[in-house]
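Appendix B, Record 12. Input sequence as logged:
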Amino acid sequence: MASLNYSRRLNNLRDRKFDRELNESNFSKSASAANLPENVKYLVESMRPIGQKYNDKTNEAGVRVKNHLEGKFELHFDRAYRNQGSVQTKTNIKVHSDFDLLTIIDKYHYPEFLVGEAYKDSDPNMDIKSLREQATAIMKQTYDEVNVDGEKGISIFNKALNRKVDIVFCFWYHSKKYQETSDEYYKGIYLYNFKKNIKIKDFPFAAVHNINVKGEATSDGSRRGIRLLKNLRADSESNIANLKSFQLTSIVHQIDNGNLIYSQGNELQVASAVSNEMSILISDSSYRKSVKCPKGTETPLADDNVVPDLVSLKQDLDTLINDTSHELTRSFIVKKAVMEY
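Logged structural output:
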């Protein structure tokens, strides 16, 4: 079993959890930390959430972008705004997390089933291109760092808050279930690929809802499992390029809630549940290819190219479990420190 450089990994964690704007760290200041070996500290700290005040700063960066846009848009249609991403599900592992601001044409929508007359007052493709063009001009007037190369949107960097905001341009999509219930869970969007001039259906609100429901049902256990995998991937000495965040989230989301329920000091049990799930995913290709994402519309692990990365990530996870298990088994002081961390 490969060894892990826990000193380096802890330094990486500290860097991800240091807020340069606030000049403070979200790394635990627990008095019991001195009694924790580095491997146990890495396990526990990798699973801890980013504090709400740091996420509030990220949300504030999104609000500022929205206000700048709304103050200067000159378009014939209204806009709606929604947030998506790991900050909304509290599964982010960085204080300076990216923020996705969905910027949606709010004058009309695409229905799954048309009721009444189709919208004909303007060309939707021209509308969304005008939306992007004006947003780009406004952002360049407001921020020094604006990246306009994205296929589906643009991004800015707010230097004052040290936060990046991705502005993603969309249409509304009303599924049949949404038309029947008006429940936003069933409300979708069409992302627009500006390079290919195609629409891409997505249901981000269902994803956020389901991840948060599972997080609450497991007393944050599922979120802790997701954060653990994200940190292990970020610190891996291998290039784990075929496992993105939504795939790591899907792995944990598949685990039975009863195996993920978190209580103070049982980080090892949650980590073991994640490892057991990964074993099944690696050994049973039919099962792996059937696993759905949290919104239930995709099978993000169906491609066989994820298997080597699953194996590599699981090796690091199992090394961590093995190392910390030895520490927790032989030392009451370490167990007590984890309970107090």
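The first strand starts at residue 18 and ends at 19.
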